[in-house]
Design goal:
Structural class: alpha+beta
Radius of gyration: 21 Å
Number of strands: 20
CATH architecture of the largest domain: Distorted Sandwich
CATH topology of the largest domain: Glucose Permease (Domain IIA)
CATH superfamily of the largest domain: Glucose Permease (Domain IIA)
Number of domains: 2
Helix content: 10-25%
Shape: globular
Largest sheet: 10 strands, antiparallel
Bound molecules: zinc ion
Distance between the termini: 42 Å
Order of helices and strands: HHEEEEEEEEHHEEEEEEEEEEEEH
């Protein structure tokens, strides 16, 4: 008769002999807006929907799914002696419809005199998002940037003063002006600028492996472009600069310039 104690041992031996089950692990949710951290100590190359991913020295890699990501993805892993292909389902997310009224009309439909300024802002942000920073700390747990009430969630369809706009790309945390904002992970400041039209005062931090966090509508900014920051460093404070109806932090998370759901990263 096999005792209860012996059973787990049998399962363990099975896992070791079945290399398929022990060579790769995925952490995160396969859902629209989700982010996945993969690990394999033996993998030589990883492809996500045909795109080769960077693999850290420890065998970690990262990828994510945008708001409207298709319903499946292909992950291909190349090992020294074989190639494995996973066809994974990406769960559909339900998004809210969010109506915001009372915004100054020039913030919803800016006049032509503002086009140049808005275009320049977009170029500045685009340049910062193209940069990257080499760090392997993305496998550490992320922390929330501020304490406050969640006043806006990722992906909502926004109707501003009755006009249908782009979906909400980030997470809003409402708190009084002056509330500290912390870096969610170690990284390097890729942008720290004041006075942009929509975003107001803005900071972008690169965390490595194409993962970035963006903090907007800030009151004060405590960092400068090029600064290295540690997780928990106060990079500035909550405000309502740019297009905002009240003091709050809007945070975007980007992987490979795709906006992902910040809450899914923070809850990993
Ligand atoms: Zn927002």
């Amino acid at each position: 008769m096999i005792s209860n104690l012996a059973k787990p041992l049998i399962i363990l031996l099975f896992l070791i002999s079945n290399s398929h089950a022990s060579e790769v692990s995925f952490h995160g949710k396969f859902v629209q807006g989700g982010i996945i951290i993969g690990h394999s100590s033996l993998v030589e190359k990883v492809f996500f929907d045909g795109q080769e991913l960077q693999i850290s020295n420890d065998g970690n890699f990262i990828f994510g799914f945008g708001r409207n990501h298709k319903q499946s993805s292909i992950i291909k892993l190349k090992f020294p002696n074989k190639t494995e292909t996973y066809n994974v389902d990406i769960k559909k997310s339900d998004y809210k419809i969010e109506k915001i009224d009372g915004l100054p009309s020039k913030m919803v439909t800016p006049g032509p005199e503002l086009y140049e300024r808005i275009k320049n802002d977009r170029v500045l942000i685009g340049q910062a998002l193209k940069e990257d920073y080499q760090s392997e700390k993305f496998t550490n747990k992320f922390i929330w940037p501020s304490n406050g009430r969640i006043s806006g969630v990722f992906g909502s369809q926004r109707i501003l003063n009755g006009i249908k706009k782009n979906p909400h790309g980030g997470l809003d945390i409402a708190a009084p002006t002056g509330t500290p904002i912390k870096a969610i992970a170690d990284g390097k400041v890729l942008m720290a600028e004041k006075g942009l039209y929509y975003t107001g005062n803005i900071v972008i931090i690169g965390h490595g492996y194409k993962l970035k966090s963006m903090y907007i509508h800030m009151e004060d900014i405590n960092v400068s472009k090029g600064d290295k920051v540690s997780q928990g460093d106060v990079i500035g404070t909550i405000g309502m600069t740019g297009r905002a109806t009240g003091p709050h932090l809007h945070m975007n998370i980007y992987w490979n310039r795709i906006k992902i759901n910040p809450e899914l990263l923070l809850e990993m």
